[in-house]
């Protein structure tokens, strides 16, 4: 238990704790978004391929995350995108030649690889990977990869090639050997290729590559754990064209799913109807109604080590959804609709044998309009979960930031307003601490 979260023995709240009735979780954001890449030095290598155009966007994304980027290009890469473009985006002169005289010791391959926190080659062509595999080093980029300190500087390769080249046994063999030699050989995308063919072999998109780099540096407190997250609203149909839903955007749940994946977990995200992009490396199951969400969560729960219920589940559903659009009958009266209570997914999960044994750690969210502490404490007891995260519904639905109140059997702690991505990273670390202790 975080000492900041304990009630003292006489029941008074400690310095970091909040007192009931004095909640102020509506302050404006004061904390910077966290970035795993802040002040990291990334060498971005480009070998020859049409996917070089994506390297420009990638370079920009890395810089935006606070990294410094040193671009190294092969001569073939310079046929596809100019060093001028890459210099402008990285704000540093680009290296192309192993004979570059700008380095005082004339050993660019040594200097560049020693300065790097990671080397990412994107695109990595089939030819470049074949060259690396054999330890050949006849240009600056391959020379630098060979010279990198193996124990300290991770090498990420983002393959990009035509689908036939990709599936060729030589390429697959080379990639397997490169992995065995310690490189992170990333996957590829599928779809239409520049050559006009369709299939596997496209380079991953810049945002996907960005996440791969972030993953390298992210702490892994949930390594190998199975994390299940419910997120977003549910939609309860009244008839084929209308229904009852709520304003939950799903952003907190999606941020938690992303943070858990970066923390090394295998994440399944059961998402109500939202238009958010699937977090990187997360398995997504889309659902619509509370009953759908209940079925999807219960199906995944036997494998889960952690269940984080962020979803704003409708408490009630129409007893019978009309099969045809409900029409006005001219009486001026709204038709009477019978309602049935939905299952409480979190409470049911927390009552399973595995949860009672402590094998699945259940976390709930409480979206309230007032008296957050009292309501969160009531939900903690009613749902029999070890941790409830309280927040003000109207301040969080749709917003990119939030303020949280962590409530457990020992007390409560206030986390001030911050971006949801940052709160998610913090919360994942907090959950990891708690499951290690239990
Ligand atoms: N929850 C759930 N299934 C439900 C209702 C809620 O899993 N049918 C979960 C939510 O995902 C959240 C927690 O329970 O983690 C609290 O949800 P909330 O809507 O705040 O509370 P309710 O239990 O619905 O209670 P009330 O409507 O009275 O506030």
CATH C-level of the largest domain: Alpha Beta
| Largest sheet: number of strands, sense, barrel closure | 8 strands, mixed
Number of domains: 2
- The coarse overall form would be elongated
Level-2 CATH architecture of the largest domain: 3-Layer(aba) Sandwich
Order of strands, widest sheet:
12-11-8-13-16-17-18-19
- Portion in strands: 15-25%
> What do we call the CATH topology of the largest domain?
Rossmann fold
Bound molecules: cytidine-5'-triphosphate
Share of residues in helices: 25-40%
Task: Report the radius of gyration as a whole number of Å.
Answer: 26 Å
Number of E-type strands: 19
Tally of DSSP helical segments: 16
Separation of termini?
A: 10 Å
Give unreliable regions as ranges: 1-34
Q: Quickly give the structural class.
A: alpha/beta
Structure description:
The chain is an alpha/beta fold and 438 residues long. The chain has helices spanning 52-64, 77-80, 83-90, 108-115, 126-133, 140-147, 163-167, 169-180, 206-217, 251-262, 290-300, 345-350, 353-357, 372-383, 393-396, 420-437, and strands spanning 41-46, 68-73, 118-124, 155-159, 184-185, 189-192, 198-202, 226-231, 236-239, 242-244, 266-271, 282-286, 306-309, 316-318, 339-341, 361-368, 387-392, 401-408, 411-419. It has two domains: 25-33 and 220-437, Rossmann fold (3-Layer(aba) Sandwich); 41-217, Flavin prenyltransferase-like (Rossmann fold). It has 16 helices and 19 strands. The chain has an eight-stranded mixed β-sheet with strand order 12-11-8-13-16-17-18-19, sandwiched between helices. The structure holds cytidine-5'-triphosphate (CTP). Cytidine-5'-triphosphate binds at residues 230, 290, 309, 311-313, 315, 342, 344-346, 364-367, 379. Cytidine-5'-triphosphate is lined by residues 230, 290, 309, 311-313, 315, 342, 344-346, 364-367, 379.
